[in-house]
Specification:
Elements: E1 17-22, E2 25-30, H1 41-58, E3 66-71, H2 82-89, H3 94-113, E4 118-122, E5 125-127, H4 129-136, E6 139-143, E7 147-149, H5 164-172, H6 174-183, E8 186-188, H7 189-195, E9 200-202, H8 208-222, H9 226-238, H10 244-260, H11 262-273
Parallel strand pairs: 2-3, 3-4, 4-6, 5-7, 6-9
Antiparallel strand pairs: 1-2, 7-8
Helix pairs in contact: 1-3, 3-4, 5-6, 9-10
Length: 280
């Protein structure tokens, strides 16, 4: 294809995480296991840029149709690195602090704008910024001994960080979100399952089970009707800011587009022929 707007992007080669594609699933692995995959300025920037461009890669033949976000080693992500980020923030004036907080928020915004479904694999700990990244994912697989910790109040900061106070009430409700963001304590996997923060909880005596289950879930999504799933994620995000009447109209228009897509007819043809559909 000669049109530069449609040429597939090269595989990313970041320094702070690894990326591979397998069976239609793009696997993003945070790669600082000795620090429980704590985030640095470089990780923030590279992840932000990645989520801004992955859609274009996914449009190429053989591109990823769903994503897994996981951490290398024992943990998912312990938040901002104390040495690389926290101590250096004390050296910044207001303008520099605002640049940082806007950059962290940009990462979460790009995750939500990314039309590919994202499955977070939460092993052991998802704390601080790591908790918000898992929250910004569409689905969350947790090990039974893992936990979330939106610990911002425990370090003298607002629980409203990186979009957490916008996202969390929409996932678990205002009451649960208020408790979690104000107290900043650990929310263990069983509790996450009760309030809807965890999609699935799996045995994690072998922590590889968590990554494997997240991959299986993402693979199921990747094998589905890509156009329809992308449209579903886009509409779930957009309708959060719409009134009911506007949402009904937006869904009518979105569904019309899906009805014109060949997957709709393929699903019907497959049902009539008693076979599995072959999505376009």
């Amino acid at each position: 294809m000669n049109d530069p707007d449609f040429r597939p992007l090269p595989m990313p080669s970041p320094e702070s995480f690894s990326y591979e594609e397998k069976d239609g699933v793009g696997i993003i692995t945070l790669d600082r296991p000795d620090r429980f995959n704590a985030l640095t300025f470089a990780v923030y920037r590279e992840l932000t840029d990645f989520f801004a461009t992955i859609e274009r890669r996914s449009l190429a033949e053989g591109g990823a149709r769903a994503l897994v976000l996981q951490g290398k080693g024992k943990a998912f992500c312990s938040g901002g690195d104390v040495e690389d980020i926290i101590t250096r923030l004390f050296e910044r004036e207001t303008e520099g602090l605002l640049r940082f907080t806007r950059m962290t928020g940009e990462l979460i915004a790009n995750m939500r704008r990314c039309p590919l479904p994202i499955v977070a694999s939460v092993k052991r700990v998802a704390a601080g910024a790591g908790a918000v990244m898992a929250l910004a994912s569409d689905l969350r697989v947790m090990g039974k001994n893992s936990f979330f910790s939106f610990l911002f109040p425990q370090v003298g900061l607002s629980g409203a960080d990186m979009g957490a106070s916008w996202l969390l009430p929409r996932v678990v409700g205002l009451g649960h979100a208020s408790e979690i963001l104000m107290l900043g304590g650990r929310v263990h996997a069983d509790r996450c399952a009760q309030i809807g923060l965890a999609t699935r909880v799996v045995d994690d005596e072998d922590r590889a089970n968590v990554d494997a289950e997240a991959f299986t879930l993402a693979k199921t999504l990747a094998a589905g009707p890509h156009f329809g799933l992308r449209m579903t994620k886009v509409m779930l995000q957009k309708e959060l800011d719409l009134g009911f009447g506007d949402a009904i109209e937006a869904e009518a228009q979105a569904q019309t587009l899906c009805m014109e897509h060949p997957d709709f007819k393929e699903a019907n043809d497959a049902w009539l022929a008693k076979r599995d559909p072959v999505w376009k």
